[in-house]
Amino acid sequence: MKAWFITFAEYIKEADHRVYTILDGLSHDEREKERGSYYGSLSGLTLHLLGGTLFFHSLFKGALGEGSPAAKVLDYPAITLPKGKLSEAQWKSLGPFFEAADGATVEFIKALKDEELSSPITLDWYGGNPPSVPLFFMLQQLTAHGIHHRGQISQILDELKVDNDYSGIDVAFLPK
């Protein structure tokens, strides 16, 4: 199972890099324009995508505790995301933030012990039933979250007639 999650994390890292690169090629105004999505603009969707990763990381750390070598991987410098419309400089800061967060996801999973994949993560999302879910379930949710929001970005790029085949079948992220 761990090999699957490493592959998913490598996919996330590659897909986020491609998305950011495509969006970085757009004008600032194109990224900030209201697009009718729940998160408004392409920048808003991108911020949410990155913020989701940071949120999942906090859940993973909380489940494992301070003594876990895998949890220590998530002790990278704090990433503070800007709010609202982004300046060009704020946009440029997101590229390194994605690299740090997505790289940490890959290294976190590599450092996990098999038994840690079943560590309970306490949630109140389901009205207390269940009171917790296994870490492996939340790793899957991290993957699904990213696919969902990159799909939204892809739809907007399609409407703009911007080539964006970052979600096609690719082998770049497969283990060597």
Describe it:
The protein is mostly helical and 176 residues long. The protein is 60% helix and 3% strand. It has six helices and two strands; from the N terminus they run H-H-H-H-H-E-E-H. It has helices spanning 2-24, 28-32, 42-64, 69-73, 88-111, 135-159; strands spanning 120-122, 132-134. Helix 1 (2-24) packs antiparallel against helix 5, helix 3 packs parallel to helix 5 (88-111) and helix 3 runs antiparallel to helix 6.
CATH C-level label: Mainly Alpha
CATH superfamily: dinb family like domain
Name the helix and strand elements from N-terminus to C-terminus, one letter apiece.
Answer: HHHHHEEH
Rounded radius of gyration (Å): 17 Å
Task: Tell me, rounded to a whole number, the average pLDDT.
Answer: 92
* Shape type: globular
Q: Which consecutive residue ranges, at least 5 long each, have pLDDT under 50?
A: none
Q: Major beta sheet, specifics?
A: 2 strands, antiparallel
User: How many domain units?
Assistant: 1
Please provide the count of β strands.
Answer: 2
CATH architecture tag? Up-down Bundle
Which oligomerization state do the chains in this entry correspond to? single chain
Query: According to CATH, what is the topology?
Result: Four Helix Bundle (Hemerythrin (Met), subunit A)
Strands of the widest sheet, in order across it, are 1-2
Helix content: 55-70%
SS strand fraction? under 5%
The class by helix and strand makeup works out as: mainly alpha
State the separation between the terminal residues, measured CA to CA: 17 Å
Tally of separate helices: 6
